[in-house]
Amino acid sequence: MIDFRSDTVTKPSAGMLDAMLKAPLGDDVFGEDPSVNKLETLTAAMFGYEAGLFCPSGTMTNQIAIKVHTQPGDEVICDKLSHIYQYEGGGIAFNSGCSVRLIEGNRGRITADQVKESINPNDIHKPVSTLVSLENTANRGGGSCYDFSEIEKIKEVCLQNNLKLHLDGARIFNAIVAKDETAKQYGEVFDSISVCLSKGLGTPVGSVLLGTTAFIKKARRIRKVFGGGMRQAGILAAAGIYALENNVARLAEDHRHATVIAEALKEKDFVGDMLAVETNIVIFEVKGRFTAQQLSEQLKKHNILTIAISPTQVRIVVHLDITKEMVSKTIQLIQTL
After folding, report:
1. Which one, 2, 113, 301, 307, has least CB within 10 Å?
2. Residue 147's pLDDT is what?
3. What confidence category does residue 175 fall into, taking pLDDT thresholds of 50, 70 and 90?
4. Do 284 and 322 share a structural domain?
């Protein structure tokens, strides 16, 4: 089976499994798991932060960050396609008691001018604008990447208006590799970052939340409240350490594979508009002979799994379990349709 449904479907490699089996362990709730401590320190150092917090999921790290940065009744500013709004179960309202100001961005990316226009005035009738959240890469934007200069402009707006800036970095390393950036660039701009390890980096579970020592101290308490305190979590943390040390640079291969698949799709009469392919995600419109669901089902008959993300769009996500041979087989099938 060739599984393009998501980069979350990856399985640990032999090297990663070996690292997990050999991981030194302790009770992380007591702060005594050496593998968890190493992962948190390693990730924080990569981005230039004081501290990190290992959590089961990117949804948890995002929701913890929002909770730390806000008070009930505040408002979070983000793109309308943001994962924190679309795919985290209403967590902003449920966990933090905040409302959301949604911006109509460009493929999941918003601008400094849009942020500035979305900040509420000091009016008792309106919620207090407290936090801006960006997603890079933007999933529903087809893995689109921010121009870093725009992020810097957004940061300046936040500073001028006393807003915090959070990054949902579910695929942050895809952006870093694609745009030839550094992790420390991001650490210099964002007040907090959620770094996901279980997508393109290939770990079975986990994300790391990054921030100042004071921020992470509060985040650790909230993680406990959310039920995210794990015990001998070093088995999972060891996979994260392995991924950060071995699986970042290879993301460029996923990006190349996504590009060649996209080029094959563009030749077909049933493929309409396609979002620009910048990283490992291909989102395209299906028209004519197929609906999106019918095309996905047709591919499944040939052991190729995709997702119809809307009545008219199919998504393909490339990851480290997709080999060059799988890409060639996929292209050959596309050409026969």
Report:
1. 301
2. 98
3. very high
4. yes
161 is in which domain, residue-wise? 14-246
Phi, psi of 51 (to 5 degrees): -155, 165
Which candidate, 291, 242, 250, places its Cα nearest to that of 18?
242
Q: 124 and 225, same structural domain?
A: yes
> What values do phi and psi take at 321, rounded to 5?
-90, 0
Q: Is the dihedral of CA 193, 199, 200, 206 positive or negative?
A: positive
Q: How many CB atoms are located within 10 Å of the residue 297 CB? A: 13
Q: Do residues 257 and 324 make contact, with C-beta atoms less than 8 angstroms apart?
A: yes
| pTM attached to this predicted model | 0.96
CA distances, 17 to each of 120, 160, 278 (Å):
49, 47, 30
Judge contact between 76 and 109, C-beta under 8 A: no
In a domain, 7, yes or no: no
Quote the number of domains for the chain: 2
247-257 pLDDT, tens digit per residue, is 999 999 999 99
DSSP three-state, residue 93: helix
Model confidence pLDDT, tens digit, residues 64-82: 999 999 999 999 999 999 9
Is the domain of 117 the same as that of 26?
yes
One-letter identity of residue 70:
T
